């Protein structure tokens, strides 16, 4: 008894771009995930007799993945193939809750991540772990405040005298230039 295997052939004339154009695009794509998609088109164009299953094996991808990509290309061209609709995890808090948390963070601040976790749980009933709070801070662009190191032997009076003396020297050396200095205390 013989098994008849029917290999579906795909119409490769649908691929409008040349191999050179595809190879250039492959170098310029914004993300690595699109490289294999373009590679699939290159293989389909270069090897017109190879079935999609063999190209899937060459690229170390599942046949179904290539079928989906081919369908995307047929329906939407390169734009359709290189479209990425996947969105990241939106987070546990809703938009209004996140705004309220940011307001609290900016106005009153928190001493620690544990304090943040407690405030979020008491206010919204949402539990966060330490890493979750770190990810939340990164997502909203918040950075922890870190104090600068200060020399314990620092003499404020000598520092002020040095700055005033140095300013006068620089001003004397550059009489034709306008020179402005601002110390930390001046900005207060």
Helix content: 40-55%
Q: What is the average per-residue confidence, as pLDDT, rounded to a whole number?
A: 84
Which class do the helix and strand fractions yield? mainly alpha
Distance between the termini: 92 Å
Largest sheet, in brief, is: none
Strand content: under 5%
Q: Extract low-pLDDT stretches.
A: none
- Anisotropy-based shape: elongated
Q: How big is the Rg?
A: 31 Å
How many individual β-strands?
0
Number of helices: 8
What order do the helices and strands follow? HHHHHHHH
Summarize the structure.
The protein has 188 residues and is mostly helical. It has eight helices and no strands.
Question: Care to describe what's here?
Answer:
- It contains eight helices and no strands.
- The protein is an all-alpha fold.
- Among the domains are: 12-81, no CATH class; 95-140.
- α1 (19-28) runs antiparallel to α2, α2 crosses α4 (63-81) and α3 crosses α4.
- The relative contact order is 0.06.
Essential attributes:
188 residues; mainly alpha; 8 helices; 54% helix
Strand and helix map with partners:
Blueprint: H1 19-28, H2 35-46, H3 52-58, H4 63-81, H5 95-107, H6 113-124, H7 130-140, H8 156-173
